[in-house]
Design a protein that fits this description.
The protein is of the alpha+beta class. Helix content is 27%, strand content 27%.
Length: 128
C-alpha cells in the first residue's frame, strides 16, 4: 500500500508481526475457493483495516519459510487516498500489532527481509 501526501514524499505501509517479530508488507494465505486477488484484498483489510483496489502486480516472491516450506507470494500495488484516515484507527490484533506509513528510505531501513526491499524498489520504479 502506498500514498502520496500533499507535497510530501511517497509513503508505504509496513506492518509488524509479533509472531515473527518482523516488519514486512501485508500478506496472507488463501482461503478455500478464493482467488489470489480476493485473498490480497481480504488480507489487507484484516491486517490493516484499509481497503483499496489492486493496481500493478509486482514480481512474485518465492522463498522457504522458517518451517522449511516453499512459499510463493503475489503482491499488488494498492494506492490509498492520502485523505483516508481509516489506518489512523488501526487496532492491534494477533497477526499485526503495529503499522505505520513511512517514506521510501525509512521503509527500506525498517523492512526485515531483502525480498521486501526488492519489492519496494520495484514499486518505486512503477511510481517513477
Amino acid at each position: 500500500m502506498w500514498r502520496a501526501s500533499d507535497g510530501g514524499p511517497l509513503e508505504f505501509l509496513v506492518i509488524h508481526r509479533p509472531r515473527y517479530d518482523d516488519w514486512s508488507f501485508p500478506k496472507g494465505k488463501l482461503d478455500p475457493g478464493e482467488t489470489d486477488e480476493e485473498c490480497a484484498l481480504r488480507e489487507l483489510a484484516e491486517e490493516t483495516g484499509v481497503g483499496g483496489e489492486l493496481g500493478v502486480e509486482l514480481t512474485p516472491v518465492e522463498y522457504v519459510d522458517h518451517k522449511g516450506r516453499p512459499k510463493l507470494v503475489r503482491y499488488w500495488m494498492v494506492a490509498v487516498d492520502s485523505s483516508d484516515t481509516t489506518v489512523d484507527h488501526f487496532e492491534a490484533n494477533d497477526e499485526v500489532d503495529v503499522l505505520g506509513w513511512m517514506n521510501a528510505t525509512d521503509t527500506a531501513t525498517k523492512l526485515s527481509y531483502d525480498r521486501d526491499r526488492m519489492l519496494l524498489a520495484e514499486a518505486l520504479e512503477h511510481l517513477g
